[in-house]
Amino acid sequence: MLAAWLSAPYALTLRELPIPEPAAGEVVVRMRLALTCGTDLKTYRRGHAKLPFGAFGHEGVGEVVAVGEGVTHVHVGQRITWLPTAPCGECSPCQRGRYNLCRHLFDAVVLGTYAEYLKINARVARVHLFPLDGLSDVRGAFLEPLACVLHAWRMLEPLPGKRVCILGTGAMGYLHLMEAVARRCAVVIVGRRPERLQLARDLGAHETVQIADNTDAWITRLQTLTDGGADVVIEATGAKTMWELAPALAAPGGKVLFYSGLAKDEIVCVSAERWHYDELTLLGSFHFTTQDALAALKRLRHQHRFPVERLISDTRPLREIVQVFEQLERGVGIKYAIVP
Ligand SMILES: [Zn+2]
Ligand SMILES: [Zn+2]
Question: Could you say which of 2.40.50.1020, 2.60.40.10, 3.90.1150.10, 3.90.180.10 is the CATH number of the domain covering 2-135+301-339?
């Protein structure tokens, strides 16, 4: 079979590999569609703190072609999606119900969706396979990114108000926007490119603010639009400067969600005065749990409120995966659907 292989930063190639066979508890799918993700782009650029090089891609949908001994909850011919990880259930975070913080999440991660076939390991197959039941391939493949976003929103609740500021117009920024709009929040979205800001308005953002280098005028405008600060600020750019700026954009008593991850060992500075005297809540959020995935599936069945198809820039064949990542590297496109 044809499969993408990332052996080091920027060293992405296509290889011929044997079609995997399932051992006990495992499931093999023929890939129908995979989605590119900001996490993949980060891995492509600099490697990933938690993910190994090698088989590449983690979002997708496939059709079951073989199941290992003991697998009875899915059957050959079924269209399914899955999450790339599952908690071990035994470590101390798992024992406390903090499944997204499981110490062993990445011991058994399902990678390699940019391929013709994919093997889903027994730990993931046991708890994180989801039949699509009428959901389209594209919508089904949004399970993992939307589950991450909904996990973050669970941490934001209860919302102190309805003014939400989203920093970033990547796929994650837009998914946060869809959730915010579904919750009837007033959203200001901040980005650089006019066409991305237009898409944000099309998706329901009330206001957009364009970042301009070498001037703080956009920050003043944002503060005016939010009447001195937003109740919730969501950082979804992955840039250190925006992490450090985010608390300054929150209203007294507001919440700041650091959604995007920075590079390993990065340190950020935050105003202690604002944090303490304005009672800001600074939150990190990471990954997802089964509960978040089920909530995501429910939303994906609402075509109308979650028009995730709008985030697909193009559909490209697997044999063009290298060119697709070269385009993402240049900032061309939000998310690509890759089909074998
Ligand atoms: Zn992803
Ligand atoms: Zn665990």
Answer: 3.90.180.10
pLDDT band at residue 157 under the 50/70/90 scheme:
confident
C-alpha Rg value of the chain to the nearest Å:
20
Q: How far does residue 87's CA lie from ligand 2's centre (Å)? A: 5
Give residue 106 CA to ligand 1 midpoint distance, Å. 14
Q: How far is the CA of 134 from the centre of ligand 1 (A)?
A: 22
Distance in angstroms (rounded) separating the CA atoms of residues 140 and 133: 10
pLDDT at 292 (0 to 100)? 97
Q: Binning pLDDT at 50, 70 and 90, where does residue 288 land?
A: very high
Ligand nearest 95 Cα, by number? 2
Strand (E) or helix (H) holding 127: helix 122-127
Sheet-wide strand order for 12-16? 12-16, 2-6, 54-55
| Rounded CA separation 78/46 (Å) | 36
Which CATH topology does 149-284 take? Rossmann fold (3.40.50)
List, for residues 214-225, the tens digit of each pLDDT value: 789 999 999 999
Ligand 1 centroid to residue 96 C-alpha, Å: 25
pLDDT greater than 90 at residue 265: no
For residue 108, how far is its CA from the centre of ligand 1 (angstroms)?
A: 16
pTM over 0.70: yes
